[in-house]
Each structure stands twice: as structure tokens, then as C-alpha cells.
């Protein structure tokens, strides 16, 4: 309730005491806080007297801050002084719209003192460490108030006589902006302060400081990280363009450049004024162009579309400044426009990169800006960039600098050239050849990571409509951090040349006499063929490519023995062979699928399918998957499923295989083709034809070495699985009494009752399964593990197929038992697991027929093994022995139930499982399996008791 006059008197006394008495920093801080509290309460009375009080406080604080600046304690009191100053300015703005007259020298002094305090220019280095967010925020706000109230004063901050003060304020704003320890709100406030000092009235002063301002803004924009504040970056770009725009307004002012003696600065500051001659402008332009180039490179791929859009408008605005600045020079003088052309190249670079942006605003602006550039200049620039890419692209990629943005720029250059690309490809221009070669040299498949593939099941891919061969190729790992989908974007634009581009690539293929392949060239060719072209590709060119690739692939082909050894050691198929096979298979599949229906395609289709079927049996997953996807690509182009495609051409393939398999020592690929064919057929259209070939192979089974035997077994396994798919339930006709009609001598028919009808004849598939069982049972004891496991797997499938024919099933179970029994004592536990699967199948199909065989012949051996495990320590969780033990726990209760052995052997197995479950040293997997077995056996016993 104090009147303004009394409040003014009290404040005057307080500030006089503050200046007279040398208080330490803490005492002075408390004193200022008390004054601020009193003023805040007293200045709520809104009248002229309170306004005069506020003006006095503003003026008096100038003396306080000057005094504290001299003794070095100002940084410690900066927050309190600025808070008091801000209260006063806020009150003045509240009580009147007219700005009271405050002497400029007071405001100038306060601007300089506060700005100096922000920069930490005290007597010691400790002064800068005292500043905190509260002090800096209050100081920035005070500078804003002082600038607002100095507008209209003569002189003011933008006067040449105040150049040093202007420089201090600008430097303080930049220092706060550059310091990342301050909050984004404080840094934005500093940028707002920069915006106020980069106005046209201060162009003269700003021109003296522009190099430092550009350097500070450039450093922050190019050093921005993924966590940088988006608003700060947007504001920085705005201030960057605003500062340059302000300075470039002086370029057309001849009076100020030549100097007519008007408005000259006072002598003490004359040394700070720069001479803005042609050399000065040239140096500034060079610096701006270099800065813009680096800022564009740093922010063109920024995560925020708003920042990218701001970058685009900023660069285009600065380009307009330099372009217009050179246009307003004296037309009679010779102008060096090299800087303009360099900046135009930078702008075109940025527009080409950002024209691929997913943000519609950016893409639209890029199209608009590109349309303003003369067509001749744009085409010439793109030609230069194409030549630059032709020489530098592989080097950039190998240095680790290749990224999506770079290849997006390449795509934009090719797209901008439009019909020029078609002309270059059609004429096989040397530049186009070098560019294509450089693009190919960027691709190097990383063989060390090639084993990391999708590994998806082929049927699942087809069911879900997977990405096909293109998705497979794009997933291949490349060296140097490259990705094939970046190249795919370039080939999409090159496909504009269509047939001409394909011929250019075909000319780059190694000659037939060369023994080396170029997987990178083949990948680029494959991607090009897969693109949608405005002109269809020639069947002659595609046929020539397929013929060349099939011939090459047959050279890459490894021997059967090496292929089988790769099951255990995949490294024997070297990386170079693997990469060649991958690229050749993909090229063959895609090129064949793109060929039109005609003689060229029909002539090569059988050879292609045979080759792809052979390679689909390769033990290397990546190569096998490439072959499978190539087959599916051909089937898709014919609007057929893989099975339908193979059935349509199956007779020709089977005939070729049948003829070649008679010379099996020189044609070991035939079983691979046949097994792959059988795995993919979903109907029995080729059953009779394929059965004849299988019979021939069975006849050759005993005239073998171990490798050839393994290949034949692969065919037999694929064959028996196929007939199980085709004929899932081959049962004999139902038994019934029927009437046989006989003709008597009189010509009458006599009905005769037949008690025992003749036995029905098994179907062809059943007799084939029986034949296979008979001819493979001796191979259960093979010392070659793959042969042993395959023969056991074949036995399991065959027994399932003949399960409804007791006259076939039971003799086969009996005959296979003798060779199966020793496998449960085999040293290799994988062999034991395979034998256990056959035993489970026998129990499933023959029931108690093997009751005595298990009880008397097999159980003693298994019981001995399991009892030894009850006291043994558990092995590794992934050991084969552990897997065999768990398999016994899971399968024996079911086998006992099927063979009626639960009442006789169930108690013994329960004792063993109980002991295993109590063995704390055993693996947890075995303990859990033992508990499951006890539960199953208990359920079976309770069911038997009920029965």
C-alpha cells in the first residue's frame, strides 16, 4: 500500500546503500532479492509514479552492474539483477503502451554488461561456472527487453557508433546458442535474440560480424545428432537464411559500398568496419557455398520432415540471394559467375536427393524448384554427375560412405536424364559403360554372412505369397554396409532403356573362354530384368543370357562326393562357387520367366528345369533356396503352381533322367534331379513313369559305391514320401462271399458258393513299397551314417504305406527286425534315434505282432542303458545321447501300450523313470521327460484296470 513516491524514495536509498557499502556476493544477492520483492509488491499500483519508479530502477541497475562488473562479482548476481530489470520492464509494458524515455547510454551499458556476463568474461575462469539456467534465462530475457526499448532511440544498437555493443550482444547470443548444456527453451530464446539483431537496420553492423555468425550456425547444424532438438535446428536454419538475406541487401547499395562520407562511425570504431569490395563479396560467397554444401549433406537425411523442408527452402533462398546479387552488378563489367554455378550444382544435388523424399511437401517443392532451372543447365549438370559417379561411386562405397541417400541421388540423376539415358544405352556410350561398371563394382556379396538366410519352407512361402526371388536377392548380405535395394532403385530408373540396357550388360559378361564369373554383374542384370520396362525385352537376348548362364552353371557344378561331404562340412563348397551359383540360378529363373511363350522358351525350358531341380538338392541352404525360388518364378510366369509346371514337363525331364541314369558313374546328378522332382509333385500323373525309373535304380542299388548308394536312397526316400502323399490310404478290398457263375452243358448258369475267394492283388504303390523294403533292409547296418539313417527313414515310410496289407506288412516287419535290433547298440546316437522312430512305426502298424520281439530281444538292452543313466551325470543339453534318452522316455510308454507290454514291463520302466526324476545331477530335460513318462504310464495302467 506504499505510494509510488515513497516507494521511489525507499528504492533510491536502498540502491545508494548498495553502491556505497561493499557487500559480499551473498549479502548483495539477498539485498537485491528483498528490493525485488518490495518493488514487485509496490509496482502493482499502476500510475505514473510507479512508471517513474520503474525507470529509475532500470537506470540505477546500470550503476550497480557496472560496479559489480569491476570487482568481478557480477556473474554471481546476474540472475538477481536481471530479474529486477525484467520486473521493471514488465511493469512499464503493463501500465502504458508508450515507451518512456530511457537514455541510450544507460541501455547500451546494460546491454554490454549483461552480454559480457553471459560470455563469462569476469576476472577469473570460475565466473563462467557460476552461471546456471536461471541466470542465463533471466539475462536473455533482459537483453530482449533492452532491445525492444532501444528501438526508436537515436542512436541505438544498430548505429555504427554502437558497433562494439552490437558485436558483444551477437557474440553472447551465439555463445548461449552453441552451449548444449542449456535447455532447448534457453537456446531458442537466444535464437530469437539473434533474429532481433539480424534486421535490415543493422545490416551494416551485421556485415562486420557475418563470418562469425555463419561459422557458429554452421558448426551446430553440421554437428547435429539424432537427439538434437528439431525446433532448434529449424530456427537455426531460419536465422542462417535471415542473416545472409540481411547482409546481401547491402550488395546493391552503391552509396554505402563506395562511401559518400555520410553516417560514418565515430573514429574509435572505424577500424571495425569492413570494406565490402568485390573481393570481400567473393570470399563471403565462397564461404557460404562451402557451408551450404556441408549443411545440406548433414541434414538432407534428417529424421524430421520439417527440418528437411526448412533446409530445402533455406538453400533455395540463399541460391536466389547469390544469383540475384550477381545480376544487379554493373552489366558492363565482366562478372565471374563460377560461384553461382557451384551453388547451383549444390542446389541441384539437394533437389535430386530430396525429390525421392516420402514427404509430399518436400517432393512437390523439389519438382517445382527443378522446373525453374533451365533444362540445358539441368541436363549438363546431370551428365557431369553421371561422369562423377562413374569414377567415384565404388571408392565412396569402399570407404564406408555409401548410403541410401547417395543411391537415391544416383536414381534421381538417372531419372532426370530421362530420354538421355535411353540414347546413351542405345549408342553404348562410353560414359554409360563406365557408369554401369561402377554400379556393378559397388556390389560385393559378403560370403561370411551368407549362411544367415531366411530358411523359410517353400510351401509356406507359396501359401503366404512370399516376396519371391526378388525379396531373396534383396536380403543377400553385402560388404561395406551396402544394401541391394539401393541398387534396385537405380536399376528401376535404368529399366527406362529396356532392351538397350540389357544388351549393354550382356556385352559386359565374361567371354565363354573365361573361367571366372561376375556375380555382381549377374545380380544387376537380374534386377534390371525384373523391373517394369516401357519396351519389352527381346526373347533373343533373354535366350542368349539363359544359354550363357546354364553353360556357366554346369561348370560351377561340383561332384556328388563333394556335395555329400558338405552335409558335415559346408565350407568345402567354396565361397566363389556359392556366389556364382546363387547369381546364375537367379538369373536363369528370372530370364526364363520373362521370356514370352514360344519356341525359344520351350527349347530351353527342359534344360533349365532339370538344372534348377538338381541345384535345389544342394545341401547349402542359400543355394537350394535360390534354385527353389527360380522354379517358382518360372511357374508364376506361366500362371501355374510348381507341381503343375513340373507335371506338364515331367515326362521330358523323366525321360532325360532315365536315359542319363543308365550311365550313373558319369551322370550322378540324375538322382538329385529325380528326388527334387518327386518332392514337388502333388499328384500321381507321373507315377507309372517314375516307378519304372525307380525300379531301375533299385536294380542298381547293389552295384554301387557308398556315394552312389546314398544318392539312390535319396530318390527312394523322396519316392516313398511322394506315394504316401498321393495314396494316403491304400487298403485291400473288403472281404465278402461272392457267387461264381459257371455255364453248364445245357447252357444254363449255375450259381456256386465259394467259401474262400482269391486273395486281392496289392496296388502298384504297395508292391513298390514292399520291393523297396526288401532291397534296403541290409543297409540298416551300413557303416556310412547318412546311408544308415536314410535306409531307416525309408523303412519307416514304407511300413506306413503297407499298413493295411497284413500279408505284406508282417513279413516285412519280421525281415527288417534282424537288421534293426543291432542299431539300438550303435555307437552313434543319431542312428539309435532313427532306429527308435522305426520301432515306433512298427508298433503303430503291427501292434502286438512285435510283443515278444521287444520283450525278449530289445528291452534288456534298453533297460541296461536306462538304468546306467539313473546314476550318470547329465551331459550337455544338446548332446545326441541326451536326445536319445529323452526320445526313449517319450516313445516307450506309447510303444508298450500299443504292443500290450504295459502290464509286463511298465513297472520296470516306472522304476527307471522315478530314479531318473530323482537324480539331481541329471539334465532338467531328462528329468522332465521322465516325469511325463510316469504320468503316461499311470494313465495307461488306470485305463487297463477299468477295462
Automatic annotation (TrEMBL):
InterPro entries (alphabetical): ARM-type_fold, TELO2-interacting_protein_1, TPR_TTI1_C
Pfam families (UniProt xref): TPR_TTI1_C (PF24181)
Stretches for region Disordered: 739-763
TTI1 C-terminal TPR domain mapped to chain residues: 726-941
Protein name from the UniProt record: TTI1 C-terminal TPR domain-containing protein
GO terms under cellular component: cytoplasm
PANTHER family: TEL2 INTERACTING PROTEIN 1 TTI1 FAMILY MEMBER (PTHR18460), TELO2-INTERACTING PROTEIN 1 HOMOLOG (PTHR18460:SF3)
